[in-house]
Automatic annotation (TrEMBL):
GO biological process: carbohydrate derivative biosynthetic process
Keyword Transferase among UniProt keywords: yes
Species whose genome carries this gene: Saccharothrix syringae (Nocardiopsis syringae)
Protein name as catalogued: Glycosyltransferase
Pfam families for this protein: Glyco_trans_1_4, Glyco_trans_4_4
Domain Glycosyltransferase subfamily 4-like N-terminal: 22-168
Length: 378
């Protein structure tokens, strides 16, 4: 396959499709949306799975993968990644990095004169230990170094940016809040419902930062044999490993709790059609695409009061906020939202769709890119 002589934008991040996370999905949907609008987009990432090709075209996006020498916790050692990114940046009009990643400082330094946009999704989170605390400081420093060189910093919201550990660096750069792309998941069938009892749903990576154990404790305090808890998400190929064993132990022999695994395609629509309330009990979160998609499907969200994560609920009024690690408050909020009248659900759904639906995120990216490129050419 003949490669373009130049790309409009090279996108750099650690993981990309087929790996699924909020960060990878935001990057993928944006890249594919821009391709559909006529932009030539390259993605450079790590070859996290050796079965993946070093180059392929996915829905019009040229994806280049650098070899991985070893995996370390949620990251890896891939010394060729910054070099590959710099070579692609040299033949591109713009470099767009999605952070956090530990290679950020090196890629920013090697890009030469190519204008740089950084989307800072979230502060790195690792389970507490001396080694992990050191690792988070290293990644923070690398991200801060890249941001200091950026022509523009994008975050999901200003609330997320201000709550970041590296806000003192972000605040000195041009900042533009652009919410992550959220897909309209309406139109599914309630195939995952079991009766008329309350159905609560969670969707996301099954990892410690999602706080799912607190959701399980909250749910087990609901004395209703007809209630169900649907926990959807990948726990087999999660970077850094999953806490699925702990969660199964938390669930015990409660037959009302279901672990569905990773859902794709129409199964995602069916999931949202099958629940009454969505729960996002994270202890580390910056936005929560899944909670917005639930709102757009008419399901209120109960999430934790964290910078960024609280923004969709505060902006729409369609849900409730609770403090992290509080299963009692979580249970009370879930039951309150379960009793929400249909007219209130409709108002919340309309508010979420107006704020986060459609292709406003693509419009915002194009506008930001063109402003930087026009400035570089003048």
């Amino acid at each position: 396959m003949r490669l373009p002589d130049r790309f409009d934008v090279t996108v750099m991040l650690d993981y990309y499709a087929p790996y699924v996370s909020g960060l990878t999905e935001a990057a993928r949907i944006t890249a594919e949306g821009l391709v559909a609008r006529g932009w030539k987009i390259a993605v450079v990432c790590a070859r996290h799975d050796r079965s993946l090709p070093t180059h392929e075209v996915i829905n019009g996006v040229h994806v280049f993968r650098a070899p991985v020498l070893a995996h370390v916790s949620r990251g890896f050692i891939a010394p060729h990644l910054p070099l590959l990114a710099s070579r692609l940046a040299a033949r591109s009009d713009l470099l767009h990095m999605h952070l956090p990643n530990p290679e950020a400082a090196f890629v920013a330094a090697l890009r030469r004169k190519t204008p740089l946009v950084v989307t800072y999704h979230i502060d790195t989170f690792l389970p507490d230990s001396p080694i992990n605390r050191f690792g988070m400081r290293v990644v923070d420093a690398s991200c801060a170094a890249a941001i200091r060189r950026a022509d523009l910093v994008i975050t999901n919201s200003e609330d997320q940016a201000r709550g970041s550990r590296i806000w003192p660096v972000i605040r000195r750069r041009a900042l533009r809040p652009i919410a992550s792309p959220c897909v309209d998941r309406n139109g599914g069938s309630p195939t995952m419902r079991e009766g008329d009892g309350l159905h609560i749903g969670f969707m996301g990576r099954i990892t410690v930062d999602k706080g799912i154990e607190y959701l399980i404790r909250a749910f087990r305090g609901i004395d209703d044999p007809a209630a169900r808890l649907l926990i959807a998400g990948d726990y087999t190929t999660v970077a850094g490993g999953s806490n699925i064993a702990q969660l199964r132990e938390e669930a015990g022999n409660d037959p009302r709790i279901r672990f569905t695994g990773l859902l794709r395609g129409e199964r995602v629509r069916d999931f949202y059609a099958s629940i009454d309330v969505f729960a996002l009990p994270s202890i580390s979160e910056s936005f929560g695409i899944v909670q917005v998609e639930a709102m757009m499907a008419g399901k209120p969200s109960v999430t934790t009061n964290l910078p960024g994560s609280r923004y969709p609920v505060e902006a729409t009024g369609f849900g409730r906020l609770v403090e992290p690690r509080d299963p009692v408050a979580l249970r009370e909020a879930l039951l309150e939202m379960a009793a929400l009248p249909p007219e209130d659900r409709q108002v919340g759904q309309e508010a979420a769709t107006k704020l986060f639906g459609g292709e406003t995120f693509l419009d915002a990216h194009e506008e930001a890119y063109r402003a930087i490129l026009n400035g570089a050419r003048s």
